[in-house]
Design brief:
Structural class: alpha+beta
Low-confidence stretches: none
Shape: rod-shaped
Number of strands: 5
Strand content: 5-15%
Distance between the termini: 98 Å
Helix content: 25-40%
Order of helices and strands: HHEHEEEHHHE
Strand order of the largest sheet: 1-5-4-3-2
């Protein structure tokens, strides 16, 4: 008696079977069409632990000069302005090597000399905040 009731509950009508079959076939066709057309799912957005870059600005030399302390240290290198404050404590040449150029232009030979490996130049990009006003 229990067996008969289970089969009654599990029984599907012919219409139910047709609806399920058509839905499965439609999903299969859409899947094959997407694969065949070379469509790929959109990649997930990249997650980065780095802070987002602020909008770059154009500064005058006077504006950069106001950032001239150990706690607020900006420098100019080849016409670009960098906020190097976070790097001061990590600098292997000592804090003074950076702070003495705070708020002003770093001579090219000091920034790009043999004392700085290539990776230091790449690291500089992380601190870019803008560029200098081009004199007219």
């Amino acid at each position: 008696r229990l067996r008969r009731k289970m089969t009654d509950v599990m029984a599907l009508s012919a219409l139910d079977v047709v609806v399920i079959a058509v839905a499965a076939f439609a999903a299969f066709v859409l899947f094959k069409k997407a694969i065949g057309s070379g469509a790929k799912p959109a990649p997930a957005p990249a997650r980065s632990s780095a802070p987002s870059k602020p909008t770059l600005r154009v500064f005058t030399r006077d504006e950069v000069a106001t950032h001239s302390t150990k706690d607020d240290c900006w420098v100019i290198v080849r016409g670009k302005v960098y906020n190097v404050t976070p790097e001061i404590e990590n600098h292997t040449g000592g804090e003074e090597a950076i702070v003495k150029f705070a708020g002003q232009e770093v001579p090219v030979e000091r920034m790009f000399g043999s004392q700085h490996p290539e990776k230091v130049r790449d690291l500089l990009d992380d601190y870019l905040v803008g560029s200098l006003v081009v004199p007219q």
